[in-house]
Amino acid sequence: MDIVIIEDEQLSADRLVKMLGESVPGAEVVSVLHSVKEGLEFFGRGPAADLVLADISLPDGLCFSIFDCCDVAIPVIFLTAYDEYALQAFRYNSIAYLMKPVRKEDLVKAVIKYRMHGNVLSPETRSIIRAIGEGKLKWRERILLQSGEEYFPVPVGEVSFFVYDFGVTKAVMKDGSMGLCDISLDHLEEQLDPSRFLRLTRQHIIDIEDVKSLKRIDSKHFLVRMKSNAEEITSTNARCNRLKLMLDR
Questions:
Q1: pLDDT of 126-178, one tens digit each?
Q2: What is the DSSP letter of 71?
Q3: Which of 76, 104, 138, 171 lies at a 20 to 30 A Cα distance from 217?
């Protein structure tokens, strides 16, 4: 089974290749594409795979542009941090809609379903679509933090950013205070509203409402400044391109 991956973040693409190699016998990744432009060039030459794994939000647009412009009849597993594109995804050859960070077991189930049934929506995907349609998809609203021996709940909107530091997760508040959080960044990323919170680095999840500015520091990195606490976070072009898309809408 030949697979094409469309993913702008190299670490995420490498992780997908590794998961497929470890868990899906017979899977061979024939190409990894990083942008809409590369996708148009690749699929413009004709069908070249059995299955596509596609991140939706790319540096130069949405992956849907590829399928709009090219006659791609290949089944697609969409991988994204944004639930808002779920309905749009199923206008294409989608067999699953997996939320990032993608879990190995979810990816394997989607590939198995493709092999057994072709273009059949998974129960998980149907659940997401139903929840969106009924307005029942909820994100975390509060978080319990620890300071010394005291625990206190705070609305997530009061957090400027979460940072993993020296083996613990910390929540840095917009008023300058800080608390310890007993939740990993991976789990927080699954529970926070992806239209507002972004995994800017492996160690940081930020509230985009608290971003003051972005500054390019070299050909591969930006410096992101936060409003509330003058924190400066260095991140890659790919993640900051996603941040710019989120801020400019």
A1: 454 455 445 555 788 999 999 999 999 999 999 999 999 888 999 999 998 99
A2: -
A3: 171
Tokens 């089944």 sit on residue: 75
For residues 210 and 221, is the Cβ–Cβ distance under 8 A? Answer: no
Nearest to 49 by CA among 104, 5, 10, 97: 5
Computed over its alpha carbons, how large is the radius of gyration of the chain?
Answer: 19
Give the pair of three-digit tokens for residue 90: 């199923």
* Residues in Cβ contact with 177 at an 8 Å cutoff, skipping those fewer than 6 apart: 147
Phi, psi of 11 (to 5 degrees): -60, -40
Give the residue carrying structure tokens 């992780």.
Answer: 15
- At residue 84, the pLDDT reads 74
How far apart, in whole angstroms, are the C-alpha atoms of residue 58 and residue 239? 10
Amino acid letter for position 154: V
